[in-house]
């Protein structure tokens, strides 16, 4: 009798494992909320675009050589795989899908422009991973660690989708890849390249354009407050002859502005300094600033974030929220361009 009981128990356990447990698991999947189903759909879409991407033939642009600034190593990556790392480093994953796609196409175009116009500044490599030099880049592993666990997979799928669904697409002007600069926040109006990189040339597709909605982002306004003596000390490092009599009215004065109302020149006492230099000395977020004095402090009130040339990322997100496609966003920030498949 004991033997029979044991036998029945084994059979019951067997039945439980083979039939009952899987039924429970299946039920769980079937019982997913609408939100859950959407994730499943995205996954399918992602798989589809992943395959499409694998089919895209970039011919001579198949891989790029990426220089890691930190260790000096050069890594060779397929172009779209490299772009996952660029888009996820350059734009928050919670931005609109069309903004992320615009970022993917701008970054792909920038990369191909760098390959085609390689001036050898990175030796063997085509680009580096430094945002102040080329474009920011982050490995998938590091990127995933920075996101909280519950958004990790969703965010990564969104980044991959933005790159794969635009595979092969670049921005062209006269059938050539453009120098697709981009930045964080234009403060309402983008800037000409020649006003940022003094002596640099202008490009017909990089005009000054206006965008609304950027003031809704934290990057739009910032402030740097510095004591008079600290300001003088900082400027003396580069301009040893500088003298500022702070008691004099207009001892600090903005002398002129660029077409987009960014500061071109500031007079500090006996010395005139370009706005771009003031920005880098004082760590201002942009050259779109005003200056005020309050007691012993000098206050720099700044609008926007970045050099201001080309696409504004927050502007792109705000345009996407207003219902614009990635193509419309790119054509707004880059004048007279086409979106072409290479
Ligand atoms: Zn670089």
Write structural notes for this entry.
This protein is of the alpha+beta class. Helix content is 43%, strand content 18%. It has helices at 2-30, 34-55, 79-90, 97-116, 140-146, 149-164, 193-196, 228-238, 275-282, 313-321, 326-333; strands spanning 63-67, 74-78, 127-128, 169-173, 176-177, 182-183, 221-227, 252-257, 263-268, 271-274, 289-294, 297-303, 311-312, 338-341. Strand 11 and strand 12 (297-303) form a beta hairpin. Helix 3 packs across helix 6, helix 4 (97-116) packs antiparallel against helix 10 (313-321) and helix 4 (97-116) crosses helix 11. The longest helix has 29 residues, at 2-30. The chain binds zinc ion. Zinc ion (ZN) binds next to strand 3.
Give a quick summary of the entry.
The chain has 342 residues and is α+β, with helices and mostly antiparallel strands. The protein is built from 11 helices and 14 strands.
Mean pLDDT: 87
- Main beta-sheet annotation: 3 strands, mixed
The number of distinct helices, counting runs of at least 4 residues, comes to 11
Q: If strands are numbered along the chain, what order do they take across the biggest sheet?
A: 2-1-3
* Radius of gyration (Å): 27 Å
Which ligands occur here?
A: zinc ion
Return residue spans where pLDDT drops below 50 for at least 5 consecutive residues. Answer: 20-40
Shape: globular
Number of strands: 14
How many domains? The number is: 2
CA distance, first residue to last residue = 78 Å
Determine the structural class based on helices, strands and strand pairing.
alpha+beta
């Amino acid at each position: 009798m004991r033997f029979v009981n044991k036998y029945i128990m084994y059979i019951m356990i067997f039945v439980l494992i083979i039939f009952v447990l899987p039924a429970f698991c299946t039920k769980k999947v079937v019982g997913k909320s609408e939100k859950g189903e959407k994730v499943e759909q995205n996954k399918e879409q992602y798989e589809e675009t992943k395959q499409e991407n694998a089919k895209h033939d970039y011919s001579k642009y198949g891989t790029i050589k990426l220089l890691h600034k930190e260790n000096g190593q050069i890594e060779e990556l397929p172009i779209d795989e490299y772009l996952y790392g660029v888009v996820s480093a350059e734009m928050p994953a919670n931005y609109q899908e069309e903004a992320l796609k615009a970022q993917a196409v701008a970054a792909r175009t920038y990369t191909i422009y760098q390959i085609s116009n390689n001036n050898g500044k990175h030796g063997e490599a085509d680009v580096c991973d430094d945002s102040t030099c080329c474009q920011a880049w982050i490995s998938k592993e590091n990127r995933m660690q920075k996101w909280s666990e519950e958004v990790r997979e969703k965010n990564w799928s969104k980044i991959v989708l933005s790159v794969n669904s635009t595979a092969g697409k670049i921005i062209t002007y006269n059938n050539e890849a453009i120098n697709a600069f981009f930045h964080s926040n234009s403060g309402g109006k983008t800037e000409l390249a020649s006003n940022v990189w003094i002596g640099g040339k202008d490009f017909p597709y990089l005009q000054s354009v206006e965008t609304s909605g950027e003031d809704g982002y934290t990057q739009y306004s910032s402030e740097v407050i510095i004591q008079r003596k600290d300001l003088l000390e900082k400027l003396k490092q580069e301009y040893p002859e500088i003298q500022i009599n702070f008691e004099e009215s207009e001892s600090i004065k903005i002398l002129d502005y660029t077409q987009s109302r960014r500061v071109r020149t500031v007079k500090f006492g006996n010395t005139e300094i370009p706005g771009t230099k003031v920005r880098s000395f004082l760590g201002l977020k942009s050259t779109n600033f005003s200056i005020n004095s309050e007691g012993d402090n000098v206050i720099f009130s700044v609008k926007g974030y970045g050099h201001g040339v080309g696409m504004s990322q927050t502007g792109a997100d705000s345009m996407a929220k207003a219902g614009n496609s990635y193509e419309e966003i790119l054509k707004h920030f880059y004048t007279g361009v086409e979106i072409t498949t290479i």
